[in-house]
Amino acid sequence: MHGPASPGWLLVALCAATGAYCLLRMRSAVEEQRRAAGGEALMGFGMAAMAVPTAVFTPPSWAWPAYAVVFGAAALRALWAARASAHHLHHLVGTAAMVYMAVVMAGAPAHAHAHEHGGAAPGPGVPLLTGALLLYFTGYVLLAGIRLLPAAGTSGGGALAWGDRPELARACRLSMGIGMLAMLLTM
To answer: FRET pair for 168, CA 20 to 30 Å: which of 24, 75, 116, 145?
Structure first.
């Protein structure tokens, strides 16, 4: 993504750590949780790869279409899985956002080069789809943050395995939502 290097590295670290935790969650005894964790691990690692600052590594021209294909396939899988669980609708929006960002980034190097040398900037304002995704993920982050607040009168039950801790899964999803917001803001 285009933007300063330090926040880019922080975003890479956040997304990679989230992806790694989601891999741990794939060891859960609950099949639905394993499936969701697999999709979230793909998102976390994909976001980390896309967030590497371009000053350090400029991906080859084929990388952005490859991201679009991978996340397009993940979007189709999320669409299929949404029949059984509404949570997969969020996965669908997330993977579609990744496809959108990959397509935009595929065309960005020529624009960035022209803009650096006095070329015309894109039209005023934020593109409609970017704005809609920003609104969606802002709402998602706020809602996910509220869900992390402990409910009154709840106490910790028995010890749960790392892959089965719902509060950590929610924190993982919140982190990815924040990462998605940061990536969309750099578009």
So the answer is: 75
